[in-house]
Every structure is written in C-alpha cells, then in structure tokens.
Amino acid sequence: MPKSNERDRYLAIIEAMGEGVLLISRKHRITLSNRSACSMLSWVSPLKGKHIEEVFSSSILPATIDTVFRTGRKEELKITSYLSSSGADAVIKGKGREKIYKFSITLLDDKYAVVTITDETMMERMSVVRQDFVSNVSHELKTPLTAITGFAETLMDENLSAEETKSFARIIHKNSTQMQRIISDLLLLTSLDREEIAPAMENTTDTKILSEVRAYTQFRAEAKSIAVSYSPEGFSLICSESLIVQALINLVVNAISYSPQGSSVSISSRKKGDRAEFKVSDRGFGISEDDLPRIFERFYRVDKARSRESGGTGLGLSIVRHIAIIHKGTIKAESRLGEGSEFTLSIPLR
Ligand SMILES: Nc1ncnc2c1ncn2[C@@H]1O[C@H](COP(=O)(O)OP(=O)(O)O)[C@@H](O)[C@H]1O
Ligand SMILES: [Mg+2]
After folding, report:
1. Which CATH number fits domain 4-119: 3.30.450.20, 3.40.1190.20, 3.30.565.10, 3.40.50.2300?
2. Residue 113 C-alpha to ligand 2 middle, in angstroms?
3. In this structure, which of 18, 97, 281, 288 has its CB flanked by the most CB atoms within 10 Å?
4. Ligand (nearest to CA of 260)
C-alpha cells in the first residue's frame, strides 16, 4: 500500500485527468470514479457504489467487462450515447446531443478492472467531414474532366471542319480552366488552414485595399455593364492585406455574377469603434432564407448551373469565412430573394 500522502497524490492525479476513469469490481460495482467520468456520462450524483447496470442502459459494457475478467485481455469498445440536456441520471438513453465514447477496459488484478473513457465525438465528426470533402472534390473535378476527355476524343476524329475543331477546343479550354480554378481555390484553403496559426500582418489603409479590389474586378464589371461604386472612408489598419483583398474580390465577383446585366454594386469601408467594416452590396438575384445559412459551406451553391456559368467553384465564400476567422473577424450575409444581398466583413483594426 502506498503511504497516505502518496495515495492522495495518485488520487489527485486521477481526479485531474481529462480521460474518464472508473475502477470496477468483478461484481460490476464502481469503486472509484473521477470528475471526467461523471461529466462525460452526465451523471450528477456520485458514481461510486453504483452498479454499472444502473449507469448504462447498454448491456455491451457489462458483458465486455466480464470478458476482460475471464480472459485477462484488454478490450476496447465504442459507444454512441445521447446526452440528455437535463444532465440528470439518464445516461446513454433517450434523445439529446449525440456523443461517441471509446471505452478501454484493462484488468488491474483478479478483483478489479480499470475502464478509461475518451470522448471521440470531435474526431469522428472530423473524419466524416474529411470523407465528405474528398468525395466532393472528386465529384467537382470529375465533371469538367469528363467533358475534357469526351471532347478530346471527338477532336481526334479527322473529319471535323475547322469550325467544329475550334469550338471543341474552346470547350476543352473552358473546362480545364474550371479545373485550374478549383485546384487553386483548394490550395488557397489549405494554405489558410496553415496560416491560421500566424498570418503575416502589415500596416495598410482601406483606400489601398479597395483600389486593389477595383483593379482586379473592373474588367468583369464592365463585361456585364455593372456600375461599381467604391467608397473608402480612409483609415489605417493592420491586417494581411493580400488576404483581405482576396476576400473582398470574392465578394465583389459574387455580387457581379449574381446580378443581372446593367445592375449596380457598391463597396464601402468604415471604422466602427475598434473594428474595420467592409460592406459589399448588390441589387441582384438575392438568396432565399433557406439557402442563406448554408452559402459559406464548401461547394454549396444555390444554383449550380449559374455558378458554373460565371466560373464559380463553390469555394469563394468559404475562403472569405476562413480569412475572416484568421483575422479574428466576422462575415455576415443579409439577403432578400429578388432584391439583392449585402455582405459585411468586420475585422479588428489591429
Ligand atoms: N451576392 C450574391 N447574390 C446571390 N447569391 C450569392 C451571392 N453570393 C453568393 N451567392 C450564392 O452563394 C453560393 C456560394 O458562393 P461562393 O462560395 O462564392 O461559390 P460560387 O463559386 O458558386 O460563387 C453561390 O453559388 C450563389 O448561389
Ligand atoms: Mg463565388
């Protein structure tokens, strides 16, 4: 037996652990539990003295514990539980937030087994997000690639007129440009993920930022006879200038793409308290209430055909959101179907 102050120290360490720890007897009685175990199982009263059957509605855990006592081998299992919002003694049953826990059961001696519980909810969710992302990327690249392959095959036919040859080459060019755009947006998103830790900040002004955005988008606006008004207030700020310019270009390109010929777009910036606020508004097609909460998701488009027609990748707004987050800022969208949209990017001046 360890000395009493040594024992207290061990207990304090167990109590402080992020993993849930339960010591369980052969008869399924909990003889020790730490704070993490109680909170993971949303159990308010002490777990000590309870039988695991009282705590878990699932019979898998007791059965696995028996196996561990019988074989002496470590066992692992994953349990999906629904935490009740009341937090009362109602574990792993009923409705509520879904949680995924990993239970590892190890034999301590012939009387006790140790159960450690880790919350794997985030990891599981991230792996689902990653799988979805890979399948989305593959799908997005497959569409233009299929067109390229098909038209290249047709081009190999020697009986084509010069006119036909040209038109097929044009389609191939358009689709490969689309693939290039998707890939460069994806690379940008990946580099933003990395930059999240330490973006390179510099001193600049809103006037300079807006004039760069103008230079990049002028051609597009003219092509659609859209009048774009620029109204910088004139102030200094510290930010990643190139990223803020990129975010605003994405917003302005959207405003132009999703507005009819001859419409108008306005971009303004002002100092609001200790924040810089950039607004891009249009009088275009607008976004419905149902779609609005989803437009910042990767690859989400309201109208796929319209987006593709304007050279969209479905990644523009998720890039904007990323850039806002990197600057500890926010991006907000307001819109009415058929009336227009307004996007507000707000970042701290420093
Ligand atoms: N100013 C806007 N007006 C109307 N719809 C917009 C506007 N900006 C974005 N959207 C909608 O949000 C979707 C996602 O935008 P974005 O991420 O930039 O992708 P995309 O490449 O399709 O432009 C667009 O496909 C469009 O349906
Ligand atoms: Mg876009």
Report:
1. 3.30.450.20
2. 56
3. 281
4. 1
